[in-house]
Amino acid sequence: MADLKEKAIALLSSVATVDLGSTGQTTIYTVPVGKKCVLDHARIRCLSGDAKATVVTFGQVGALTDFLGAQTLVALNAAAATGKLEVVPNASTVIAVEYTAGTVLQIDVTTASGDGGGTPTATVELFGMIDDA
């Protein structure tokens, strides 16, 4: 039986307590062997505090902006806030990256919020579709 994540947009991975109070990368998902993946959106939820000054990017190791470039979390200004981050289409076709098996996908906190001592934190989730390679 096929995995529900195949041929449908689904939750691929969820990582709790991603530190938005310090710059750096956190691995969120690795494309399984024999599969390929196209991301749809990311969700940041369960914030422990104000993250409105945080700037993040999403992408593969070595190209941390190839899914989403700089995203300022300005609306995530209180504990328990939730945000959906996605490529916003316009009159032109949006190009999606097809990631191959073994590709490591990360969030990169390029500008941190808080005191740098581990706050705020959040759960970060990636949604997309996987298919046979």
Number of domains: 1
Radius of gyration: 15 Å
Roughly what percent helix? under 10%
Uncertain spans? none
Task: Please give the alpha-carbon distance between the first and last residues.
Answer: 17 Å
Silhouette:
globular
- CATH C-level class is Mainly Beta
Total number of strands = 9
The total count of helices amounts to: 0
Order of helices and strands: EEEEEEEEE
Largest sheet entry? 5 strands, antiparallel
Supply the helix-strand structural class: mainly beta
User: Strand share of the residues?
Assistant: over 45%
CATH topology-level name: Jelly Rolls
What would you say the CATH architecture is? Sandwich
Average of per-residue pLDDT values:
89
Mind explaining what this structure looks like?
The chain is mainly beta and 133 residues long. It is built from no helices and 9 strands. It has one domain: Jelly Rolls, CATH 2.60.120. Strand 4 and strand 5 form a beta hairpin. The chain is globular, with a radius of gyration of 15 Å. The relative contact order is 0.40. The mean pLDDT is 89.
Secondary-structure blueprint of this entry?
Layout: E1 10-19, E2 24-30, E3 35-45, E4 55-60, E5 63-72, E6 83-86, E7 98-100, E8 104-111, E9 121-132
Antiparallel strand pairs: 1-9, 2-8, 3-6, 3-7, 3-9, 4-5, 4-8
Structure characteristics:
single chain, Jelly Rolls, 4-stranded antiparallel sheet, 53% strand, 5-stranded antiparallel sheet, mainly beta, 0% helix, 133 residues
